[in-house]
Every structure is written in structure tokens, then in C-alpha cells.
Amino acid sequence: MSVVVTRIERAPAGVIDGLAKVGVATAHEAQGRSGLMHSSLRPIYGGARIAGSAVTVLMPPGDNWMMHVAIEQLREGDLLIAATTSLCEDGYFGDLLATSAKARGCRGLIIDAGVRDVRDLTAMAFPVWSRAIHAQGTVKETLGSVNVPVVCGGALVHPGDVVIADDDGVCIVPRANAVQILEQAKEREAREEAKRQRLAAGELGLDIYDMRERLASKGLTYV
Amino acid sequence: MSVVVTRIERAPAGVIDGLAKVGVATAHEAQGRSGLMHSSLRPIYGGARIAGSAVTVLMPPGDNWMMHVAIEQLREGDLLIAATTSLCEDGYFGDLLATSAKARGCRGLIIDAGVRDVRDLTAMAFPVWSRAIHAQGTVKETLGSVNVPVVCGGALVHPGDVVIADDDGVCIVPRANAVQILEQAKEREAREEAKRQRLAAGELGLDIYDMRERLASKGLTYV
Amino acid sequence: MSVVVTRIERAPAGVIDGLAKVGVATAHEAQGRSGLMHSSLRPIYGGARIAGSAVTVLMPPGDNWMMHVAIEQLREGDLLIAATTSLCEDGYFGDLLATSAKARGCRGLIIDAGVRDVRDLTAMAFPVWSRAIHAQGTVKETLGSVNVPVVCGGALVHPGDVVIADDDGVCIVPRANAVQILEQAKEREAREEAKRQRLAAGELGLDIYDMRERLASKGLTYV
Amino acid sequence: MSVVVTRIERAPAGVIDGLAKVGVATAHEAQGRSGLMHSSLRPIYGGARIAGSAVTVLMPPGDNWMMHVAIEQLREGDLLIAATTSLCEDGYFGDLLATSAKARGCRGLIIDAGVRDVRDLTAMAFPVWSRAIHAQGTVKETLGSVNVPVVCGGALVHPGDVVIADDDGVCIVPRANAVQILEQAKEREAREEAKRQRLAAGELGLDIYDMRERLASKGLTYV
Amino acid sequence: MSVVVTRIERAPAGVIDGLAKVGVATAHEAQGRSGLMHSSLRPIYGGARIAGSAVTVLMPPGDNWMMHVAIEQLREGDLLIAATTSLCEDGYFGDLLATSAKARGCRGLIIDAGVRDVRDLTAMAFPVWSRAIHAQGTVKETLGSVNVPVVCGGALVHPGDVVIADDDGVCIVPRANAVQILEQAKEREAREEAKRQRLAAGELGLDIYDMRERLASKGLTYV
Amino acid sequence: MSVVVTRIERAPAGVIDGLAKVGVATAHEAQGRSGLMHSSLRPIYGGARIAGSAVTVLMPPGDNWMMHVAIEQLREGDLLIAATTSLCEDGYFGDLLATSAKARGCRGLIIDAGVRDVRDLTAMAFPVWSRAIHAQGTVKETLGSVNVPVVCGGALVHPGDVVIADDDGVCIVPRANAVQILEQAKEREAREEAKRQRLAAGELGLDIYDMRERLASKGLTYV
């Protein structure tokens, strides 16, 4: 039941970095409004905008033993995605684990549970998106798994998927789609830039998007 | 059912700006501890303290079409108040809509739902108070209404009411009462300033407010 | 029923300051993973790391009268711990009460309810950990108690216990244990520092903590 | 600030009883999907389906004094609608108040807070929809208002509005619209009955509502 | 750190049974509106009204090992009070443990976590008040303690305290106060019975409790 | 993006019925404590214990159009599993849809959103597990998908998986594992029955499971 998958496929580094640049909201739209985690996962500090390859870890409530196992599987450019087998807000991760993850090139942590030592993590510039900030300690007694598919923050994550995280939240792009989604996201960005300028100049979305007729036909009435 | 009210009354600009200065807590007290929205609506960044005239918009869950309709109704000095017909945390509003709203003089957004592009909104200094930060995209299929009375964050808002928002939350002052509430709020501020100095000097509220006798008569016992 | 206990024992100042330095997570671990408040109590601003002696106050919902009574019991180096007799998010405490508490040497407030005037409190550098930020005003009609044991944020607090609070949350160290817990916490810190350096150099926790054999014996499988 | 409005208009008894019969879901649909309270208000026992004229009461947290004031305003066929000025789950209402309300012809209570003595209330067949069941007692110190407009469970309620409550929740029908909404609701019921029979016979909604073409034109693909 | 206290004092059986009869709401009022657990603890089935002596157990998240240890400490007439060291909704208890507890004379379980096999528990008439119903299984790896003071549902419970539980929730009566609280509760019941009859006959609380003058002096206005 | 998969594999009917009989808790344990949905999904009435093959539907917030599409895909013995693309509590399903689903042999609905007409559904004996009971109506404007993998209540569900639901919640057994899990579950039941009798006779789990030595070696102390 408890396995560590040691070989996972990753998306090309350039694609991952491109997805970091377009950010969560745009990538989410580009893939048809899918892949977002719940809004309950929030960054411990503002301003980080990253992407990486998912290394996943599934742990029991109140037990962070598998974190150590997962860290060995991390490579430069990875993001650690941590899920629990049941609801838990304990502080699974702190500055020591972050030091170790960082030494292996890990770019950050997404955890559907709690984190602690957030002052140190902030000072280290090691970004974390978590459901809670909680100092509650954990034990090391029960196994879990590494690099199996997990549901984290309501989103399905396969090992090697591209994970994008910024102030808007966390979005999963399936590895096989990453190249195409990046392209679509860039096109979307380009389209948006043109619209941004027209809107800034005072044009209305009602006119730019040609909405008035459709609104009227649906029955919208001005009084 | 779906209407846009195009003419609304607004409070005088000087009164609105005065209410921004006294802030949420004082205005709320000055009007008899009423008008506050729930504590679940929080600012996306700290430090903003604004007031404006309410332009209201009511939308279905997961559908932000009426945002575009509402923006046309905004004038210099307005605040957009967005409510949904049922519980929703989707990201109804982002940097494009903010660009458009700002071009029309809108001072900010209060939304009992989600918002996205918060890094851009912060950079633009466009303040938002929301129930969630969530990148989740929305559709444009179903009508709602603009400038009808709405319940937002548990508070009743009529179009043209004065909305005050700062780090303490959001407070609604009915338009017809704005002048009087501002006056009462200023008096309260003046009274508080005198007390602040006495308290800072080490005097106790127990003495300043003459509470000891009443406490004893209620049965308070020191042991 | 409503009493004010005027004499409480406090831990030595040096011990309290030592506990502030080790912080919440380490002290919590040092005392066997106990004493933490719920993760729902969060600081109104980041970066504060304090400890003090608990002066407790128990209040009815929506009524902050006893705050004034409690403030008289505060001494230099104390922390005010406020609990309510039932669930409440009202703003029991603002800048006037903070001014008064600060004048008596109080280092901060922990409240399982709401707080307001957070901009002023931040400017005064008066740290607060609360369940909510809410401007909602309260009345002064019903008694409570001061310096009785209270449950605050799910943790039992006796007057005079040492309270540690930082970005990770709030931890209670019973007064009688404070000297010993500080010593254990410092030892833990020393041990962690050595490990931090090894982890930063790329060694794995799996090896440092000698986990591989025990993991295998529990059935962990690499594939 | 604290007022009791002693004269309110009510809808005709026959209309109210008709609305009870159509129930919450149908009435809510008949008035354009508006008027529903939050799903957090639940009945203390199953099976009740009632309607009545709203007598409203607004109370501070933890203080049920105004309940006694409100009860005097109740008439045969009324429903008591209780809101609080801030979030509270205390048990504002129990078997004594229910006995008094029932003696005046009150049909039930809707409260955006807590209730207690639920075993007795069930035995009395006095239905209550509440946010919580909680024995927590309240004080009688601070005024509120009776028969003013209130926001209860997120819905705006004017005194004299028709309130419908059943296992699906609580719906408000503005008094002035009650006759028309009842008529529309009955038409809806009639239409639904015909459809129910066709669906029970195995016909599909896809065919009855002629949806296939519109689905295809939107891009739905069968694989 | 992990202890089992094998000798605890209990209140007299007659007092405990008397408190069961008065119920949660009345006992809570009789002891000055204290001792209640949060409203989030609900019975798995309606109608049970019990009291017993508290045998307490404190467990880590997701680990029910100490349940077996606690059961050995149960005697005829006890109630098991289960708390966790951090937030958890797992199903710590099911029909096998209930069978064992019942065999030792245990009257029920109060747990600030989850329970499972609720159909069987209901069929056995073994009442449980819990925060969740959840089938999630737990491990047996980490120690906790039995018969130490715990915070459960926000209430402090000492071993041997009297626990009352019914459809209104759960109330703790400290053992040393049990005789006196029972007496006060019975007096309260007697007073309430007289009032119930007057209220049922149509008299108003406003008159029975002589409230009109005090309401008027506070400023209540009828319009 | 919006697809309907028309052919799915199902587990053998006998296996499905066997899994219904063992129930959620036992099946969940038999497959290594996995597959459970969140405790927030609760049955609308007690006592139902069913299993079926998953037909999945993914819908936008506030839009139940795809329900009609999904119903056509239902066969005798199926269960409908409904997820939404973002958080929503609206009433997606009521008595008309239930009538249609039942006519096609559907055994029940699991929905991570709201349901309405619960009195009628109860009368029809059509069981539903939902996150909310809410009359809130929905629109039919935006596509979703049928028979794609979905995350529902935090659990991953593939079309054709076996879904078990009873008073303890909802558990997913992947189709390919169903035969084996049923066998393991039955073995577990048999083992439990033997233990139940010993426990009922007063033997302790401490002795039956031979726990005393291991507890002592971990440091458990009796005082």
C-alpha cells in the first residue's frame, strides 16, 4: 500500500518557467477553467509567483514521516505537493524540512494542511501555500506514499504535473498538456493586453465585447 | 426581473470624504452600532481607507456578466458593491475589470464572493474587500440587476448609500443619514481623543468612565 | 460568580523573555506537543514574537465591560488573554483600550473573539492575536471574571501562565514548568542548529535520523 | 434607535395558507429564484411545512430581552423572525417562550442564532428553523427593535412579509407580491405534475424540454 | 507524559441521575450559564438524555489507541469524554468499542472528533455526541492519556465531573458542585413550571417578569 | 471540453450488492483506509445503505443542465455522482429529476452541492448524500461533462467505480479492485464478529489485541 515511485516524467523546464510567468488565473482560463485548488490554500507571504514539477506525498493526519521520504525524490525545479488522508491542520513542515528541500532545488510547498516556522520560511524565501499556519507538531509512526496521484485542495495532481502558484492560489496543469496550455495562455495574455489599453482609455466592456444586443435579447431592462 | 437603475442619488462628496476619514469603527458606533458587513469580508491589501457611493450589482453564482453592465453606471467617487444570489467564492473580478472601473472613477470594490489578479490590483492600488481570493473563472450567460437594494456581507445596501471600508471591514451609512452620522462621528472622535490622552497617562477607564460603583452594585467581587 | 483575583504568581522575567526568544513551535515541542491554541487565532500584523504572564478575562458575548476591569490588574510584562462565554466575533478591543493597556506595561492581547482599530494598533506596535478583525461594537452591561482559569482558543490558561505568541500562533506554558521548558527548548534549538547545517549541505533526514531501516520494516516499497 | 412598530400589514390568510401548501422550493422559483435564506438555517425536526406573517425582532448577541417584547406583537398566524446584530449561536429561545408564543397563535420561529429545549419544542409541535441548537443562556440587558426590516439568514425581511418554511429551508415572499406569487406557484405546480408523470414513465428531460439541439450547438460531444 | 490515572472520585449516583432528569439547559443555567460544550457537538440520534461521571481520554489526531486503555477505566454509570490534541474528524469509535464500553456499564460517549457505525450504535441505543460522523479509520501508534483534565468541545472537563447530555448539547458540572447545582436546578424547574402555566394561559412575559418599566427607562419606544 | 462518455465498465452486480451489505466503514478499512468522501456529505434521511456503479457528472456552479444529460446515461443499479467546478450549495436536484433517475433504475445521488424537495425524495425513498439542503434554483446555460473522472467530496471517482453509501458517509471502491475488496471486507466482518462477542462478554481490547506490553514499552504509565 505504501509506495515510493522513484521515476516520474517532468515537463520541459522552459515550459514550466513560462507557465510561472503567465500565472494562475491565466493558465486556469487557458485550460478551460479547470485545475484550480480551493481558495482555502493561501500563501504564507505575498508576492511569490512560481511553477514547478509536482512531487506528491500522501500522509496520515498528524504524521509527517513521509516528508523525509519525499524530499529524497525532489530535484531542481520541483514543487512538493502534500495531501493528507483525512482533514488535518497540524504543522507538517517547518524550517528544517525547508532547508533540506531547498538544498535539493525544491521551489516551494503546497500543503492541504498546516505549516509552521513561517517567519523563518519567509526569511529563507521558501514559499508555501497552506490551509493553515499552525505550530502543532506531528509524529513519525505511519507510512504513506510518494509520487502517487493525490487530491490536494480539491484538485487531482499526478506526479510530474506542472503546478503554478501565486497570490491568486494554485493551479495544476497536466504534464501532457503543458506545452499547449502555455501557448494558449500566451495568446490570451496578448488579447488581454489590447483590451486593457482600451478599457484604460475609458471604453466599456459592453462595447468592446459587443454585449448590448445579447443582454437586451435576454431581457435586461434599463429604468 | 433583471433591471438596471440608471439614476441614483448620492451623498455630497465632502460628506463621503469626511466619513472615509473617521473610518469604519467610528462611523459604525456613531450610527448606533449598525451597518457593518460580516468579518468574513477582508481587504486584499492593508492600509486602504476609503468611502464612496454604492453602485450595487446582483449576480448569479459563477457568472460575472453583470459586472460589465454595472461598470457603465459608475461615476467618479463610487464604490462597486457586488452580491450574489447564492453562496459563491469564484473570482468575479480581476485586473481588466479593475482597469475599466478605475477609468470611470471607481474607488474600489466590495464583493461577497471572490476576486483574482490580486497582485495586479495591489500594484494598481485598486482596493478590494472580498470573501475570498480565488482565480476561479466565471461565465457570462445569466442576467442579474444593477442598482437594486442588495444584501452584501449580511448588510442591506441601497444604491447611493455611503460605503466606508478600511482595515476593520466595511460599513454602510444610509445616504439620508450621512450628514448627521458624520457629525456624530466627529464628536465621538473628539471625545475619544481626550480620553486617549488620559489613558496614555495611566488613568484607568474604570475611573474615567466612573465604572466602579456600577460594577460593585452588579456584584463584582475582588478577592 | 463574578470575581477579580488580584494576586497572581508570575514566572521570572528572564524565563519569560527566554521563552519569547525560542518561540511558539519550539516551546510547544519542548513541552511534549501541548499548550497550543487553535490555528484560528492569527496575528493582526506579522513579525511580532513576544511572551508575557497571562492576565485572564472572561466576558459574555458582545460585552467588553470586563476589559476595563482586567486592565487594572495588568503589570509590566503581562499579556492579556481574553475569552468569551460563547462564540463571538465582535470587536472587544481597539486603540483606546490598547493605549490604556500599554500604559500599564501590557505587551499584547490574545483574544478568542474580534478586535478593531487594527491600523492604529499596528501603528502603536501593540500586537494582537485574534479570531477575527471586526469593527462590531460591544456593550457594557454584564459582568464576567478576571484572573480565573479560562479556555481560550481551545487551550486552558491559568493566570500567571507564560504565554508565547508569534507568527506561528500562541502557546501556553504552565508557570510551574516554565524554567524547565525553557531549558528543554534551548537544548532542542541547539540540536536543531546542528541538523540545519547538515540538511543545508544536502544530507537527507532519512540518513541523519537513521530512518531507512524502520521505514523498510514497516513495509515501505520503492518502485 | 430601539423601536417597536405595533401596526403591520399582513397578507390574506388564504394566500398565506396557499403558499404553505406550495412550499419553499416552488415559491422561490415562482418569484424568480429570490427570497431564500441561507442553507445554514435548518429545522429542529423534520416534516413541518408552514407559512405565516413575519413579525421581526432584532437583538444584540447573547441577549434575548426583546423576545418578550416581540411576543406581545404576535397574532394568530404569525411567524417570529429573529435576527441578531452580530454573529451569535446562543440559545435565545426555549420552551417557555414557545409556550407564550403559541398561546398568541404563533406558528413557529425562524432564528439566525441558536435555540434550546428542542425536545420540548418538538413535543409541543412548535417548529423552529435555526442556525444552531445550543443550550447557551442569554441575558436581558440591552434593547433591540421589533417589526423593523431585518436581514435574517442573508434574506431581507419586512414585517408582514409572508414567510414559508419547510424541510428545504425558508423563503420570504414580499407581502405585496404574495397573491401573484401564489398564482404563479400553482401554475408551476400544475406544469410540474404533468412532467412528473412523463418522467416517471421513462421519458427523458432531454426530450421533454427539447434540449438536445441547444446542447449540441453549445458544443456538447458524445464519445 | 502519557499517564493513566486509575482512581478518580465520582459524584453520588442519585445526584447524577437527578442531573440527567433536569437536563442540559436547566443545569447550565443553574450553575450561572457555564460548563457548556460548543454547539458543534451533536447527538448521532435524537431523544437520549443522560448523565454520567467523566472518564477522560486525550488522543493524537487519527490515532484511537488510547480508547482501549480508557475503556478499562470505565465503571457502571460513566461517560467517556474524548478529546484530541489537534483538530480531527476521524472516526475514532465504532460498534466494537461501543460493545466493549457498554459491557463495562458506560452510558455513552462525548467526542470532539468523529464517530462511525452510527447505524449500529443507534440500534444498540449507545448514545454519542460528536463533532462529525465519519467512517475514516485510525491507527494505533501513539500514546495519549486517560483521566487527565481535558478541553473537549471548548469546555474544561476533570475526570469524575458530571456530564449531562441531551438534544440541547453537553454540559459539564464540576463534581464538587453537583449536589448544589442539582438543588438549584430543581428550584429553577419548579419556578419555570409555574410560569409555563401562566404563559400558556396567555399572560405575557413582559408582565410576569415586570419588564415594561425597565424597558421604557432604557428608551424603548412604541410607534 | 464538454464530453459525454457513453460507454463505461461496471463491476458485477453481485459484487456491488455485496459491498452494500458490508457498508462504508468496513469497505474503507478493507481497502487500506482510502476512498472516503469528506464528512460534510450527509444523507438527507437515515437508514439507507446502498451501493451502485458511478455515473459521474461535472457541472458549473448554479447550473444543473448536465443533470439531464447524465440521467440518460444511467442504467439499472447506477448511482449518480455529481461534482461542481467550484464551491456551490445550490439545489441542483429535486423530485422531478429524482423521478426521472428512478425511472432509469438509479439507486441514489451523491452530490457535493445542494439538493431540494427532500420531503418528496424521502417519501420516494430516493436516497441522497449532499453537502447541503437548499432550495436555491439553478440555470441551464453552461455545459459540463458526463462520465469523466471527478473529485467529489475530496475523493477521486472514475465512472464505473463502485460507490457505497450509508449513514457513515460515502466510500469509493475502484472498479478493478471491487472483487478483492469485497472478499477482504467479508473476512474483516468475520473477524470482527468473533471479537464483538468477546467484547460483549466483558473481555478487554487491551487483552484481545495483546496491547499491554507494547503500550508499556512506549512509556505508558499507570498512576
TrEMBL record, chains A, B, C, D, E, F:
Q: Where does substrate bind?
A: 94-97, 116
Positions the record marks as coiled coil are 175-202
The protein's annotated catalytic reaction(s) are: 4-hydroxy-4-methyl-2-oxoglutarate = 2 pyruvate; 2-hydroxy-4-oxobutane-1,2,4-tricarboxylate = oxaloacetate + pyruvate
Which Gene3D superfamilies does the annotation name?
Ribonuclease E inhibitor RraA/RraA-like
Q: What class of enzyme is it?
A: lyase
Q: Name one GO molecular function term.
A: 4-hydroxy-4-methyl-2-oxoglutarate aldolase activity
Binding of Mg(2+), residues: 117
Q: Which Pfam families match?
A: RraA-like
Query: According to the UniProt entry, what is the EC number of this protein?
Result: 4.1.3.17
Question: Origin, by domain of life?
Answer: Bacteria
Q: Keywords of this protein's UniProt record, alphabetized?
A: Coiled coil, Lyase, Magnesium, Metal-binding
Q: Does the keyword Lipid metabolism apply?
A: no
Q: Decide whether keyword Metal-binding is in the record.
A: yes
Cofactor(s) needed, names only, are: Mg(2+)
UniProt GO BP: benzene-containing compound metabolic process; monocarboxylic acid catabolic process; phenol-containing compound catabolic process
How it assembles, according to the record, is: Homohexamer.
The Swiss-Prot or TrEMBL record describes its family as follows: Belongs to the LigK/PcmE family.
The protein, known as? 4-hydroxy-4-methyl-2-oxoglutarate aldolase
The organism encoding this protein is Dyella japonica DSM 16301
